[in-house]
Amino acid sequence: MNEGLNFVPSPIAFEFDVSYSALANNSGRMQYYRAMRNGHRTRIGRNEFIKAYNTQPVVAVLPIPSNEQVFQLEFFIKSQSLL
Questions:
Q1: How far apart are the first and last CA of the chain?
Q2: In this structure, which of 29, 74, 79, 81 has its CB flanked by the most CB atoms within 10 Å?
Q3: What is the mean pLDDT of residues 29-58?
Q4: What does the alpha-carbon distance between residue 23 and residue 73 come to, in Å, rounded to a whole number?
Q5: What single-letter DSSP state applies at residue 28?
Q6: Distance (Å, rounded) from C-alpha 69 to C-alpha 52?
Q7: What angle do CA 5, 42, 47 make, to 5 degrees?
């Protein structure tokens, strides 16, 4: 997986309400977080992370490089209910 994750950042700014991230801790276990735009970050369960990815309007996905054999990911949503 470390052979090269080609990622070109978008030059276009986007608006989002909530970001979700899947990050590996020091032991390699995945931890999932929900962060509000105001900076408040909460640890969540894997099922909530997966449900958000599958059901919410995702506006951007950011792969997070890692030196480990773990794929880390952050995605951003624009929630219609928060408008």
A1: 38
A2: 74
A3: 93
A4: 7
A5: S
A6: 24
A7: 65
Q: Is residue 7 part of a domain?
A: no
Q: What angle do CA 45, 47, 49 make, to 5 degrees?
A: 75
Does a structural domain hold residue 12? Answer: no
> What is the band of 1 on the pLDDT scale with cuts at 50, 70, 90?
very low
Within a domain: 8 = no
Instruction: Count CA atoms closer than 13 A to 17's CA, side-chain side.
Output: 11
**pLDDT by residue (tens digit) across 68-77?**
677 788 999 9
Residue 54 Cα distances to 22, 23, 50, 58, angstroms:
14, 18, 6, 9
Calpha distance 78→70 (Å, rounded): 27
Residue range of the domain that includes 75: 18-82
